[in-house]
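Data card: per-record layout.
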Amino acid sequence: MTTNPNRRVAFSPNVMIIPILSLYDYTTSEISAAWFNGEEMDDIANRCFKVLARMESGFSKKVKKYCIRGLEGHTTIGSISKRKNRSTALTAVLLEQSKQRVENRVDAEAIGATYRRTTTSCQLWAQVVGKRDNETAILCSEDIYEAIHTNVQLPVQQNRTMPFRKQQNRNRTKRLPGMFEPRGARAA
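The structure for this 188-residue chain is written out next.
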């Protein structure tokens, strides 16, 4: 396997520390304000299912009322595609391992290269979606920046990139097993 000489990891010499409160330091009202509870999560999931049902029934793409971002993989075609891609990658890796066993050798780099070769189309698609999301985020931030600095109130409209986000708190916190879902966690 050949490696790309242009790929590098770099670390900034400047260290920035941002203190984060432990969950145990939160008051009950702060937890309630910062985290989704089970009922709210059920509501989010139900709204996602409704959007998926409307997508599957063929609603017009021109309708801006529904956000499908992040739900593509849960459609019939999306889930079939995901399963097929995973199965193809798994099969390729297992075949490479089997070949190495027959040749009485172990080459983790070759296994990794096989996996990357098989999943290249998935990677390219993820980059396309990421670029689209980045462009949307930039446009949104420019609108917000302009509104703040010109004292113009933005029109109230559904946020098409993250429609189910709780507006009062945008903290993203890793979910701990057995804990509430963090506000802003992905709905699907």
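Known properties of this structure: The helical segments are 28-34, 38-56, 76-102, 108-118, 120-150. The beta strands are 35-36, 181-182.

See the next section for split statistics.
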